[in-house]
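Researcher: Please predict.
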Amino acid sequence: MRESGGQERSSSLFTVKDSLFRLAEDIGLSYSAVDSARWVASKWPKDRRMAGVSFTVHKLLASIPGDEERFAAIIRPPEGKARWTPDEARRRVGRQVERPVTPQEKVSAIHTLAADEEVAATVTSDLLRRPTVVAQVKQEDKVRVVEELTRDDHVAATVTTGLLRRPDVAFRAMSDDTARHQVNHAQVERGRQAREHFEDTSPVAPAVRSIEKSVEFLDLVTACHSFVAAADRVVPGMRDRQLGDDERVIVHENVARVRATLDWIETAVDTGKVDVDGELARLLQGE
């Protein structure tokens, strides 16, 4: 093998590539086939070539970098095999086999076939319909799959609605503080939008607003009464009882929220302003 750009000795100078092109044309093969065969031959001197072993195997094993390792490999077929086959040679050099046998080889073959996005989407849809396949997927992988599939807001809303109809799922989801706050926020926001729509479109909205003022007054008084009654029932039971540090922290946090709420109520009653500033909103949400 000459160095890149080497030339033949003759009256007219030819590069190696020119010579290979001429040879390919003379024997009716492509330049790439001749160039590849030349490279393979350079890796296997005549005294190192194995009779009975195909050129394909020689070509595959030619990618073993070290000469001694390469020459030793072709002498010893894989354990349990009487001879080298192209697929065994591919396994030896870490290439994908044509006839996969092991689970990993089959996985690699599937990945290769599913390189096209449309093919991958179809295969994924088919596999997800097989319960036994889904059952073997690790929990963390299932979570990632669901997250990817629900990136679209419409899809996510549809899936979430269906899941929250399952009591056990709804209970676990509402055990998460952030999820619970988001649901509560969504309910309040939905109610606000419905109220605005009603006030903007209903002809009876002015009459209803006058009634609501008295209803809200009664609701507020009832809420205060309920809180006082609950405290009157619960607090005496704390006599001679020592709470732990964590318990005291939780109680103090809730007392702070109650104080902030009472201040908010007084402000609303005295001024009619019910806007909540950022700090109060975070406190009421337990953040």
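Model: Residues 177 and 286 are 9 Å apart (CA to CA).
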